[in-house]
Specification:
64% of the residues lie in helices and 9% in strands. It is mainly α. The longest helix has 24 residues.
Length: 144
Amino acid sequence: MSNISASLKCFMNLNMVQAGVVRKFDNRLANHGISFNDFMILYHLGEATDEKLRRVDLAEKIGLTASGVTRVLVQLEKLGLVRREVNSRDARVSYVKLAPAGKRILVDGTATAEVIAEQIVGTLKTKKLDELGKVLIELGGLIQ
């Protein structure tokens, strides 16, 4: 079975790297009371216009299903990091909005995440990191 393609090996290695990276982020972001997925949600809300997004848009941005993102949001809402906001023009549409406590956690969590990211890729040269970033965008990554 060792005769697998270079493409499959690449994705298997990418999965291993992703799992290890998420573990590292989760371990350190736990000091702020959040996981890496939580951080990703707070990040995207912080970047959005008026710091709010529809749940489906948020799910797409972080790579979770709509039900998966809803489960995460329930916990973030209980912690007071996000809140629901209804659309004044269409009651069927609701938004997730970054709460003031979420902004504080985002700022602190970003500082921690920057340190972790630098530790992980610190040995890579900038050119290699730029090339990797471009490849990930080509494969479907969204953050440029």
